[in-house]
Amino acid sequence: MLPVRHPVLESKFPQLSITGYKITSPSTPSYNCIAWAAKDDTRFWWPRDDEDGYYWPDGIEKKETIEVFIEAYRSVGFDICDNADFDNHYEKIAIYVNSNGVPTHGARMLDEKTWTSKLGQSFDISHTIDGLNGDEYGSPKVFMRRKLV
Amino acid sequence: MFYLPPQIILYEVQTPTSQDGAFVFNSLRYLRQTNEIVYTYQSLENRFNSLVSTWKQDTEFSSSVSEIVSNKAYLQIIALGEKVLPLIFKSMEQEPNHWFVALTSITGGVNPIKPEHRGNLSKMTEDWLDWAKKHYVAC
Lengths: 149, 139
What we know:
The structure holds two protein chains of two kinds. In chain A, 16% of the residues lie in helices and 26% in strands. By secondary structure, chain A is α+β, with helices and mostly antiparallel strands. In chain A, strand 5 (115-118) and strand 6 (124-127) form a beta hairpin. Chain B has eight helices and no strands. Classes of the chains: A alpha+beta, B mainly alpha. Chain A binds chain B through residues 8-9, 12-13, 29-30, 32-35, 42-46, 48, 50-56, 64, 104-106, 118-122, 136, and chain B through 56, 59-66, 68-69, 95-98, 100-101, 104, 109, 111, 113, 115, 117-122, 124.
């Protein structure tokens, strides 16, 4: 049974207690938000040197910048779009950056009001686009979309 | 029996048996043979468990590998050096986690992860445990 409220989560992301959220999976370190936004729940994506063993799309630079993360998502079919409006012909994702402009998080849109996120090494939640804004992840900087097959 | 700090006891009984660092495991076996030594081993294990707990708590919601492996507690685990390897491998046998950067650092650059396993924590963990079985008698 998944918990309905999670005090530690709400302390890290205070907006969630206002905008609402739902825990939708058990905790696992097996994949992260960047992978989950691209619908990959088998790998942990991050731009690290090969010797560290983490996955990053082939041919994409390994730097923690928004430009590099955009290229990583381009490599799996996403293009930049100018809004987070729901469009049932596309799947949309958001890339969050912190106050230094460093990418911290990726989320994927489910419907008009709901997004799904894998929270680091913890669980998946559904939430509003504003629900994760704050010190931990910063806020959405770029939206991208991919045609639904 | 007079008191010696745990670190000194540990180094007193280290018995290198190979070129690849296997002495760590042998020393822990020797250490377990007396009461003082059990205390030493438990001190290391307690310290390790405490640091792991702090690390997990600090980085639970982070997807950034850079943040996860630059966490203060994680760096303190790396600083424990080769003697902590058995505890890391034991932890990996229980559940996969982000031990790869620590292992590469402690072992001086070893990387047994197959390219096709990159990002898959279970497979990456298996690659490291396979490596450990070949290089450490007690794993």
